[in-house]
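Quick question: who can interpret this fold?

. . .
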Amino acid sequence: MNVGRMVLIGSTAFLGLTAIAGGIALLTEVIDPGLEVLDGSPFEDYRVPGLSLTGLGVVSTAGSMLVWRRVAGAEVLCAMAGVGIVIYETVEVAVIGPHFLQALYAALGVGILALAAIPPRGGRRRARGQ
């Protein structure tokens, strides 16, 4: 497995695990930015952002595991996660304003998307169901 694949696996696993943790923390109010932050937004509470972030984490983690297993087409899930976190962070900036973590995670998403676009080299790729 080449370095690009290992970085893709690590970055999507990191995104996945932190997104799942963050989403659950929002849903359970372990992280509670306060409802006043959402004033004027389309959200009345943190259910939609929390569920979205958790779902994004699941997609990212699945992509990471499937690339690790060398499943053909797994990069598509990674690319979806990369685009998804960029969209999530863009909406978050629009709703609550900028924070350095949003820029960090958006940059991570762009990096994941770029790595997922690089065709894998060498090694046997398994088709689904094998």
